[in-house]
Amino acid sequence: MSSKPVVLVTRKLPDAVEERLKRDYQPMLNADDRLYSDDEIVDMAASSDAILPCHTEKFTAELIARLPDNVKVIANFSVGVDHCDLVAAKEKGIIVTNTPDVLSDATAEIAIMLMLTAARRASEGDQMVRAREWRDWSPAFMVGSQITGKRFGVIGMGRVGQVTAKRARCFDMDIHYYNRSRLGPDLEAGATYHETVEDLLPHCDVLSIHCPATPETTGLLNAARLALLPDGAIVVNTARGGVVDDEALVGALKSGKLWAAGLDVFNGEPEDIHPGYRELGNVFLLPHIGSATAETRDAMGFRALDNLDSIFAGREPGDRVA
Ligand code: 8YV
């Protein structure tokens, strides 16, 4: 019987996922959950048939070129694949997969939470109570912006965008969206399609970003586009920081053009995010936890393993992206 494939697992994964890995593969686990350097990845890859990474490991063209030929697969534990140079992987004959679908509900929960926290001044309120600065109450105290019945705009109506729009409908919100292609009537579910981002923006009391980070979407939400939003709009980002021009967003939050923003993802995360965000009261900030629920983490791991199982059984994986 041939020996089980060796899988380099770059981060600590949920127990149930690691159990399945131990049952079906020879995993190289990262019990301490330490961030590996490129050199360490290359060293450990010398004896690996596959790598199971997270978005924390950047598979640049340079790193991919350094991987030994025995590495046949990069089975990501993530839906986003902007941390992988897919062209370089394809050229080297490495199969790349991701984990779509399974994190849509969890990410939609965070997007709705960010919308509400931004609208209702949760950062300021929480800070005030913790700092013992809450001294009074009046009808004018901590007045927020109500979202019920307002317009909810989505850039990128893929799986996460669709679930988030569905949840927003519970607040009687009117859904508008931009997507590279228009959805069929079933998936659109009454939402209004706009052919360009510029057409969409004037219709967004809340704008929620759900498109992938690609060269085309880098800096998409820039000063010119922010100016097209209605005054007092709210921006929510659970996709990738790269879609936003930080200087422009900070400027719009400072000037009062925007009411607030709720952000889970950042350029330069985790440590090197735009300093303006930390100083503003009208932003609610989270540390990239869109998919961080126990249920979803298990499902992401199992989905990555389903892809590996298919590949090592000689079948096409369900979620191949390169
Ligand atoms: C994950 C994400 O936590 O899957 C993605 O693309 O952004 C996150 O929800 C992370 O990427 C896991 O590697």
Q: What is the compact description of this entry?
A:
With 322 residues, the protein is an alpha/beta fold.
Walkthrough of the structure:
- With 322 residues, this protein is of the alpha/beta class.
- It folds into two domains: 6-102 and 294-312, NAD(P)-binding Rossmann-like Domain (Rossmann fold, 3-Layer(aba) Sandwich); 104-285, 3-Layer(aba) Sandwich (Rossmann fold).
- The protein is 35% helix and 15% strand.
- The protein is built from 13 helices and twelve strands.
- It has helices spanning 15-24, 38-45, 61-66, 86-92, 104-119, 122-130, 159-169, 185-188, 197-200, 223-226, 246-255, 275-279, 294-312, and strands at 6-9, 26-28, 50-52, 73-75, 95-97, 151-155, 174-178, 192-194, 206-209, 233-237, 258-263, 283-285.
- The mean pLDDT is 98.
- The protein binds 2-keto-D-gluconic acid (8YV).
- Residues 54-55, 77-80, 103, 290-291 line the site of 2-keto-D-gluconic acid.
- 2-keto-D-gluconic acid is lined by residues 54-55, 77-80, 103, 290-291.
